[in-house]
Design brief:
There is one protein chain. The chain contains 13 helices and 14 strands. By secondary structure, the chain is of the alpha+beta class. The protein folds into three domains: about 110 residues, 3-Layer(aba) Sandwich (Rossmann fold), CATH 3.40.50; about 110 residues, ATP-grasp fold, B domain (D-amino Acid Aminotransferase, Chain A, domain 1, 2-Layer Sandwich); about 70 residues, 2-Layer Sandwich (Dna Ligase, domain 1), CATH 3.30.1490. The strands form four sheets. Strands 12-11-10-13-14 form a five-stranded antiparallel β-sheet. Strands 6-9-7-8 form a four-stranded antiparallel β-sheet.
Length: about 350
């Protein structure tokens, strides 16, 4: 039987560079040799395509060195592969750019295509699509860099339409970078300046269930193309005020609980909404859909849809499917099959 040739792209320019490389190592070990011929290429933090020897060293060390060639110059190296698995996070990896390059090359890739990837990466566009489909989200407003530079006090006054505390986030960035919590106008100004250093567009959101206590953060894994399925519901718990960069990347700061200890009605509603969001955003293959659950009121607010979640053997997404009876190796093989199905 002819083996399926798979190219795994890892690393990249996001704060999840090391997570991506660890995910790639897990994927390489999981795809059975009798069915797949697998190669991995690592993209450096500068967005450069590393040659084979340096990619192997980066996988061994867990981080990529500087150097390499422009990705566009080396993209031809993907020719001849049946599927590319772009286990990349954030800008220039999860935002539709790599997916567009592969589409032009006629090579199927694991996960969402150009549209689903780009829309989910951009919080403004994702919110607009989800709102059009009637999926509940926390109230928010958009602020642009030009607007804040020309009339900062007018921006602050406009944001008074939202009750404090507020969360300020770059619109098109991942890894919890540039996100702050603001409790008053002074903190809001600082938060806006920080977020606008990372993006020219910023989302300002009110806290979910303000006045009803800190919301619980629950997550659902989605697997499939046009007939997606939802995993059991998981929950992240942590002591910090919100899931910031330090909490996300410091061992022991957060814990996963699968299944989440929530009422069955809440779990089923989260699973239904996750599938509805996946379809509305034209996702494919896989996604992790994150919600705020306000226990005091029973409200569910969709927070974000992650089209290429962390994929180490102990990451939330594979663990959600392990709870559904799908092991890591089977999950990876299924994702390759789903990419071929969309070809």
């Amino acid at each position: 039987m002819k083996k399926t040739r798979v190219l795994v792209l890892a690393g990249g320019q996001s704060g999840e560079h090391e997570v991506s490389i660890n995910s790639a190592r897990s994927i390489l070990a999981a795809l059975p040799d009798d069915r797949f011929e697998v190669t991995s290429v690592v993209i450096s933090r500068e967005g450069r395509w590393l040659p084979a020897a340096e990619s192997r060293r980066a996988l061994e060390r867990g981080s990529a060195p500087s150097g390499g060639e422009l990705v566009l110059h080396q993209a031809r190296a993907a020719e001849g592969y049946d599927v590319v698995f772009p286990i990349l996070h954030g800008p220039n990896g999860e935002d539709g750019t790599v997916q567009g390059m592969l589409k032009l090359a006629g090579i199927p890739c694991v996960g969402s295509g150009v549209l689903g990837s780009a829309v989910c990466m951009d919080k403004v566009m994702a919110k607009a699509v989800l709102a059009a489909h009637g999926i509940a989200q926390v109230p928010y407003l958009l602020v642009t860099r030009a607007e804040f530079a020309s009339a900062p006090e007018a921006v602050i006054e406009r944001l008074h339409a939202l009750p404090f505390p507020l969360f300020v986030k770059p619109a098109n960035l991942g890894s919890s970078v540039g996100i702050s919590k603001a409790r008053d106008d002074a903190e809001l100004r600082v938060a806006l300046r920080l977020a606008l250093e990372h993006d020219r567009r910023v989302i300002v959101e009110t806290a979910a269930g303000a006045g009803a206590g800190k919301p619980r953060e629950i997550e659902v894994g989605i697997l499939g193309n046009d007939e997606p399925k939802a995993s059991p519901v998981g929950e992240l718990t942590f002591d910090s005020e919100f899931y910031d960069y330090e909490t996300k990347y410091t061992a022991g700061r957060a814990e996963m609980h699968i299944p989440a200890q929530v009422p069955s009605e809440i779990a089923e509603r989260a699973r239904r909404l996750a599938i509805a969001a996946f379809r509305a955003l034209d996702c494919a293959g896989l996604a992790r859909v994150d919600f705020f659950y306000v226990e005091a009121t029973g409200e569910l607010f969709l927070n974000e849809v992650n089209t290429m979640p962390g994929f180490t053997k102990t990451s939330m997404y594979p663990e959600l499917w392990r709870a559904a009876g799908i092991g890591y190796g089977e999950l990876v093989s299924t994702l390759v099959s789903l990419a071929l199905e969309r070809r």
